[in-house]
Amino acid sequence: MEIIIRKEDNEDNNKVYMLIKKAFECAEHSDGEEHNLVNRLRKSENYISELSLVALDHGIIVGHIMFTKIVIENRDTKHESLALAPLSVLPDYQNKGIGSKLINEGLKRAKDLGYKSVVVLGSNKYYPRFGFEEALKFGIKAQFEVPSENFMAIELEKNSLQYVNGTVVYAKEFFQ
Ligand SMILES: CC(C)(COP(=O)(O)OP(=O)(O)OC[C@H]1O[C@@H](n2cnc3c(N)ncnc32)[C@H](O)[C@@H]1OP(=O)(O)O)[C@@H](O)C(=O)NCCC(=O)NCCS
Questions:
Q1: What's the 160 CA to ligand 1 centre distance in angstroms?
Q2: Which residues contact ligand 1 via a Cβ below 6 A?
Q3: Alpha-carbon gap, residue 23 to 12, rounded angstroms
Q4: Ligand 1 centroid – CA 27 distance (Å)
Q5: pLDDT per residue over 109-118, tens digit each?
Q6: Cα(97) to centroid of ligand 1, in Å?
Q7: Residue of minimum CA distance from atom 26 in ligand 1
Q8: Best substitution site from 16, 25, 56, 94 to test ligand 1's pocket, by max atoms within 8 Å of Cβ?
Q9: H helix or E strand, kind and range, residue 1
Q10: Which of 14, 42, 106, 145 has the greatest number of beta carbons closer than 10 A?
Q11: Which of 30, 89, 150 to mutate to test the pocket of ligand 1 (most atoms within 8 A of CB)?
């Protein structure tokens, strides 16, 4: 297996849609709507085309990751950051390191684009291996009820979250 990661093209949209649907069919935490969420996010002002990535195995799309703009805000300040969501790997290709490759490459590209941090809502058994830590540690909270250990953040630049705290405001498309 030789995995290549590249930016998603318009022609990939239908394949990515089916991939996300299949990946989340057996997922533990899912509303079964992640494939529709991605279609909405592509039209959002929070969408970043450079940070919607696909993983290919011999030309077949087997994984996808998307990062969209968020704001971490409190009464006085607003800081731009990114949300990692969703991440999907086709069931037959899971546990082969493809999700890890998509995360690591996505974080690298986000940093190269000048983004300073990323938040994720997900498994605290998975994301800490990439450097994510409980977001509350930085004083960052979700705008909805969520177990604190599952809401995580990573600094792409050392200490970039040192003076950032507040509530994460996601793209409105997450709630439609
Ligand atoms: C979650 C997912 C993206 C991981 O991708 P992957 O390519 O299978 O993962 P990797 O091969 O990089 O990593 C495998 C490791 O992650 C762990 N892992 C996989 N899915 C996990 C999950 N949902 N929760 C916790 N750990 C998970 C595996 O147990 C394995 O652990 P090990 O290295 O200690 O053996 C993939 O399983 C998937 O698409 N799942 C369905 C969709 C989903 O739940 N996405 C939400 C992510 S928050």
A1: 27
A2: 23-24, 27, 86-89, 94-100, 122-123, 125-126
A3: 16
A4: 10
A5: 999 999 999 9
A6: 9
A7: 126
A8: 94
A9: none
A10: 106
A11: 89
66-90 CB burial, b ≥16 within 10 A, e <16:
bbbbbbbbeeeeebebbbbbbbbbb
The answer to whether 117 and 132 have CB atoms below 8 angstroms apart is no
* pLDDT tens string 75-85: 999 999 999 99
Q: Whose CA is closest to 154, among 174, 125, 127? A: 127
Name the pTM for this structure. 0.97
Q: Are 24 and 34 in contact (CB under 8 A)?
A: yes
Instruction: Answer positive or negative: Cα dihedral of 79, 158, 105, 65.
Output: negative
CA angle at residue 116 from 115 to 118, to 5 degrees? Answer: 90
